What does this fold into?
Amino acid sequence: MANAALDDHMPEDHIPDRTKMHVSDEIAIQITNMNKWYGEFHVLRDINLTVNQGERIVICGPSGSGKSTLIRCINRLEEHQKGDIIVNGFELNSDLKNIDKIRAEVGMVFQHFNLFPHLTVLENCTLAPIWVRKTPKREADETAMQMLERVKIPEQAYKYPGQLSGGQQQRVAIARSLCMKPKIMLFDEPTSALDPEMIKEVLDTMISLAEEGMTMLCVTHEMGFARMVANRVIFMDEGQIVEQNEPEEFFHNPKSDRTKLFLSQILGH
Amino acid sequence: MSHDRNTAFVASGQIPPAAPPPNLTGPIGWVRENLFDGIWNSILTLVSIAVIVLLVPPIFEWAFLRGVWNATSLQHCREIIQAAHGEGTTGACWAVINERFNQIQFGFYPTDLYWRPLLAFVLMFVALAPVLFSSVPRVMLWLTAAYPIIAFFLIWGGLGLEPVESAKLGGFMLALIIGVTGIAASLPLGIVLALGRQSNMFFIKTVCVVFIEFIRGVPLITLLFVASVLLNYFLPPGTEFDLILRVCIMVTLFSSAYMAEVIRGGLAALPQGQYEAADAMGLNYWKSTRLIIMPQALKVAIPGIVNSFIGLFKDTTLVSVIGLLDPVGLLNPIRADQNWNGILWELYSFVALFFFVFCFSMSRYSMYLENKLKTDR
It folds into this structure.
């Protein structure tokens, strides 16, 4: 069965409970006619995407297709040149106040974790709440410990990131984002830099997050995760959205030739 | 039993850890590994031992066994040595240091006011303590902040203290004034310049680049001459602008250009992801620079920063070419004295010892700091 490849790294003991994942009518992100260029190169072409609160969206596609660039535009790590992006009701433009407001509400998890190596795990988690949200230190510490417990590594709180394994570091990175109580989480290939053994623990954390109703946009190649957690899968190629559908339909009944080719390449072996 | 022939193999249990072969550890292991590891290493070790045996005893004998601490002139020194150790023997004449000790320390500072620079010197360590060691209570930083003002009034007088003019300052005191001012001021200035050079704002960036490249392209001596001679032409006539202050400013500017480049190296060593992570959390530029970027960049740059500090501290001896009486500049008048004419090794090695103590301390401190900030193990 082709799905064997799909479920490669999924934790067997943790079957996601889709009934808990509720999609509301409220719009979290609205992207209309968005375009972006790197110099002459047209990376994102006419992107239209509306994400409701509570949606779990997986974005996949070949490398260089613009999927990372797309989610990095949502918190303005990349600047778009045309079109509108509205996040939580704030429009992303060159207004720095809006950008910082949006960034405080949107958590991001990176492929290479990007933890701050000179701070302990706990300090990594409390930094933004203290300095951006002005949370008192004690309260920030408490929240951080709760979040570390949620990703199941409270015992590592006083270690430095360099002393943890890759999977642990990525879970700290997730906890760090959660400490800001974000409304939306962006995942930029969160498991691509991890050993197979560690992918499971990170996916497990992400599944729990989905079950708690978090709005999530994940760029990932974990098709098992897409099938079991996502409510929508988006396939991108050459800077545009080629196809989007519910996971069952997307995997079993792809419409576009490019999607079929992509799926056959990643699942066919 | 070899198990490579069998494709199917199951370990019968965990192999327990065993002690290493005796030659690998302990003092014998250390000597083997470090001194006699192979033929070349052994030859080098033997040659080094020979050099030490040949050089150290005679130097020790000259400096300590036959050294003279109390005498009135070089001639007197020689007489004492030859009386004690026989005709034709030589020895160190430390008496010159003994006699001129105060001068080498303070230059021509009024003798009855020596307590003031000495107090400033002691306070310097108290002010440095909270900066250098995080275990010192943070309240002390207030003293650190006030120290430049306190030291200024202690050394130059004012506020009821008897004023002392700059021309009387000299010796180790002068080297420390210029060196410490340069070190303390060039680090923050260097940080600002390094950040400016990385700025997206064209004007700020250009100013920083031009400043850094200009200062780095000019020898320090030139800048010192500008400070001592040329600056007077540009200032309105009659302006009294203290020479030592001018020199301090020039040394600071010179050193800050180098500092900026060292820190820029530290900034360049940070992965882009650190900037992105800080941005993605909603930290603004100043917060992310202060909390995320600078602590890491400075840590990477510690060896280079301390290198610049040491270089700057030793460069303070260059002020002797514009007539300031730093330790090296003071040696000439001492040697010109009829009593001490012809003395060389004793004076220069004493000054060298002073610089070595300070530079070596800085070097050791940097190693301590690097070790302390290590967070990957």
Summary: The CA atoms of residues 13 and 186 of chain A lie 25 Å apart.
